[in-house]
Write a structure and sequence with these properties.
Chain lengths: 301, 516
């Protein structure tokens, strides 16, 4: 910035940081977002670059080289940094490829349920009346179904696979979206700018998409991160029970299930994917908390 | 707040993980919490739920074990000398090829105090020859025509045809029931409150969970089984191997079996545990629905079955995972059984050839199939890996044994990983005939094979039998109706206090056990 000759600050300097700058400063000043975001970033990078960074083929089994411990154990080698599993597959490579599956399930399940839940919630909140009655009824029905039990039953009947798990979770996890979106929309719809839009004759669709949705977006993001974590955890549980992702796909939940028999004498087989799962969920939750803090500072609780 | 709850859940998970790892690292410091020896109680565990204790209405290994303890058969095969001795029969006589005469021992008492009579023997046999009772034990009794009381203490059993294995089945698979009781309570009553003449009586049953056996103090003197020494045996069903190991190490259990080689190796290093390896008559196999009973499926094509056979490195699994001297099996029987030739078509590990065969069968990109299994997931996982390498993607249905075998019998299963221990009968009639002889377990329904197997089972001439079985076995191998996998040596792990020696037939006999 140049300083003019009279020594007084320019108008720009008085105005201070732009909204963009302020947002950036808030984002990077929030420890949860920085830590969660960078861990999640690393995991996403890992998933995207899996074919490049995985040292071995995650499916190649060498039975003569099974249950090799990770490098920090006495018999560990740098050849297999995290050791090998019970059929001699490189554990690090499986962990890297496994991140693809966890992220995929988390993302698609959260997106699908988000679509359903948001549509229902916003409709209920905006239109009220009978629509609200129906949606509330549906939410109550959904809440009375135990998620794990229903997904177990569905998967047991139609058979487990990646697509089935994503679909089942996506179709089950929309309740929180619907509840939160309904409440948020109820608040926003009575505000003046919505009334203004209605008076100038905007279409309902336009009001919903351009006036309501942007103003409930922050809640949507927070719920999405929660549901992302929820879906990843449920996939792990289903795979652990043998009803989720099918072997030999390297899902973290499945890796935990397969390592279960070795928990007493080779606990790292179960600890490594367990820690990976924990880290991913921690990162997503930190990020979600942070996003809420930053986008709605007055709600900080 | 939800997120806070999630946070807390996460930290608790980590703490739990750390605790578990620590428990693993300290390698289970042994503490003798329950001094079983002092209580004269042998605590054993197995992983399966026993659906019923009525021997004739189940077909699991655990049922065989219960049978040997609770009931007696007419004869007894001495595991050491291999000779048949009288058990409930004082003596026996082979009148001709199809007629056997038994003199029933006098003064033998059932657990409820009634005395064994010739009528119980005849009644048991009559029950077994009745059709449509829904019994699961078929092969060992299918040969019997009828039984007849020929004197106050003598019984004749007539076979339908010449039956080389008649004495063997009479010594192992045909326990004698108290018929007055059985007529009254039926299989349901016998299943929860069994009564027999054996060295142990059942005093408590929690179905699928726990069985308590107590020494039968009135067990008849002079039984070749010997007199029971340990006062009480408590069986518990513990489905998870790790839990069994922890309980063994902490002294809550005294005996477990089927310990995987990986864990057995580590268990051996514990101070108060002995691990005893032994061979068994069990083999693993992959069975295909070649006859298309479950509907149209890829395994109806010979090339697909052969491709599977070439795709799996059985040697590597036997050497690295099963271990303990496990060998690859090529024909549909246990190599030491009578009539079991290994001189049949052999499929070596050749994934390239497997892919070519799949392409020839019209599946250049492989296909997706259901696979059923009930045990040894650690053997199955590498097989699934090998299959996916040639493009066969599997949808695994891992269930209980009874359910899995029912599903196969009711034609719902295209492809399964199963095992069979032949009821410890050292003859191919107890395995090949069961699965290829046209019975409910026959998934290939090959008329030639059925004919040869029937031929082999209906003569005493060993040479004729061998030739007939060889023909059947080589057609089974040529057609790859089964992919026989490997033998199943097993590991028994027990407290050092227990004096018990395993036999090669996978039947623990606790009436021969005592405390050190």
């Amino acid at each position: 910035m140049s300083v003019v000759s009279n020594g007084l600050p320019t108008a720009q300097e008085i105005v201070g940081p732009t909204p963009g700058q302020r947002l950036r400063r808030r984002l990077f000043g929030h420890r949860g977002i920085v830590v969660g975001g960078s861990i999640l970033g690393v995991i996403i990078l890992m998933a995207v670059l899996a074919p490049l960074i995985a040292p071995h083929d995650p499916y190649e089994q060498i039975l003569s080289a099974r249950i090799k411990p990770p490098v920090w154990y006495e018999r560990g080698t740098w050849e297999h940094i995290l050791g090998t599993d019970q059929v001699g597959r490189d554990y690090l490579s499986r962990l890297i490829y496994g991140s693809q599956i966890s992220l995929m399930i988390g993302f698609f399940a959260a997106a699908l349920s988000g679509l359903i839940g948001t549509a229902m919630g916003v409709a209920a909140g905006y239109f009220g009346g009978r629509v609200d009655l129906v949606v509330t009824f549906l939410i109550t029905c959904r809440l009375s179904l135990p998620v794990i039990l229903v997904s177990l039953a569905v998967v047991a009947v139609i058979g487990g696979s990646l697509e089935v798990v994503i679909l089942v979770l996506g179709l089950l996890l929309w309740d929180r979206y619907a509840v939160v979106m309904r409440a948020a929309t109820l608040q926003v719809r009575s505000l003046d700018f919505v009334a203004a839009a209605q008076t100038v004759g905007c279409s309902t669709w336009h009001i919903l998409v351009s006036e309501i949705l942007p103003n409930v977006m922050n809640q949507l993001i927070v719920v999405a991160t929660l549901e992302f974590a929820h879906a990843v955890l449920l996939e792990a549980a289903l795979s652990f029970l043998g009803l989720g992702v099918q072997p030999p796909l390297p899902s973290w939940g499945l890796m935990i299930a397969e390592g279960r028999n070795y928990i007493l004498f080779d606990p790292w087989l179960i600890a490594i994917p367990g820690v990976a799962l924990f880290t991913l969920l921690l990162a997503v939750n930190l990020l979600g908390d942070g996003v809420r803090d930053v986008t709605a500072p007055e709600n900080r609780g | 707040m939800d997120s806070i709850r999630n946070w807390r859940r996460g930290w608790m998970g980590l703490a739990l993980l750390a605790a578990v790892s620590a428990a693993g690292a300290s390698t289970l410091a042994p503490t003798s919490a329950f001094a079983s020896k002092a209580n004269d109680t042998l605590n054993i565990a197995w992983e399966r739920e026993q659906p019923t204790l009525d021997y004739y209405f189940q077909n699991s290994r655990e049922g065989i074990i219960i049978n040997r303890h609770v009931w007696d058969c007419l004869l007894w095969l001495d595991p050491k000398s291999g000779e048949f001795k009288g058990l409930l029969a004082k003596s026996y006589k082979i009148v001709d090829d199809r007629t056997f005469e038994f003199e029933i021992r006098e003064g033998v008492k059932f657990h409820d105090g009634t005395t064994l009579t010739a009528d119980d023997v005849v009644g048991t046999i009559q029950f077994l020859t009745k059709p449509d009772t829904g019994k699961m034990q078929n092969q060992p009794v299918a040969w019997i025509d009828r039984a007849e009381k020929t004197g106050p203490n003598s019984v004749r059993i007539y076979a339908k045809d010449t039956t080389p294995l008649a004495l063997l089945y009479l010594s192992a698979d045909i326990p004698i029931y108290p018929m007055a009781y059985y007529d009254k309570v039926g299989p349901e009553g016998m299943g929860v409150k069994p009564i027999g003449t054996g060295p142990y009586k059942v005093t408590e049953v929690e179905p699928g969970k726990r069985i308590v056996f107590e020494k039968n103090a009135d067990y008849f003197k002079g039984s070749p089984k010997g007199q029971p020494k340990i006062g009480k045996i408590v069986q518990r069903t513990i489905p998870d191997v790790n839990t069994q190991i922890v309980e063994l190490a902490s002294g809550n259990l005294d005996w477990i079996f089927k310990v995987p080689a990986d864990q057995a190796e580590k268990l051996e290093t514990l101070p108060n545990i002995t691990v005893k390896p032994a061979s068994t008559m069990r083999i693993g196999y992959l069975t295909f629905d070649a006859a298309g009973r479950s509907g149209e499926n890829p395994f109806q094509k010979l090339e697909v079955r052969q491709a599977v056979a070439h795709a799996i490195d059985r040697q590597a699994i036997a050497d690295n995972i099963v271990r303990g001297g496990s060998t690859v099996v090529h024909s549909a029987c246990y190599p030491e059984q009578f009539g079991c030739t290994q001189d049949v078509a052999k499929y070596d590990y050749d994934p390239k050839k497997a892919k070519e065969l799949l392409a020839k069968a019209g599946y250049p990109d492989g296909f997706k199939t259901d696979i059923y299994a009930y045990r040894d997931r650690n053997y199955l996982e590498p097989m699934i890996g090998y299959l996916s390498a040639i493009g066969i993607r599997t949808d695994l249905h891992f269930g209980k044994y009874a359910a899995t075998r029912d599903a196969i019998r009711s034609s719902k299963v295209p492809f399964a990983f199963m095992t069979w221990g032949s009821g410890s009968v050292p003859d191919v009639d107890a395995i090949t005939t069961v699965f290829f002889g046209g019975g409910p377990d026959d998934t290939s329904m090959d008329a030639d094979v059925q004919k040869w197997l029937a031929e082999g089972a209906s003569t005493m001439d060993e040479q004729v039998r061998k030739t007939a079985y060889a023909k059947a076995l080589s057609k089974i191998a040529d057609q790859a109706y089964w992919l026989p996998l490997f033998t199943y040596p097993t590991n028994y792990a027990m407290t050092k206090d227990l004096d018990w020696t395993p036999t090669a037939d996978e039947i623990p006999r606790f009436f021969t056990a005592s405390w050190q």
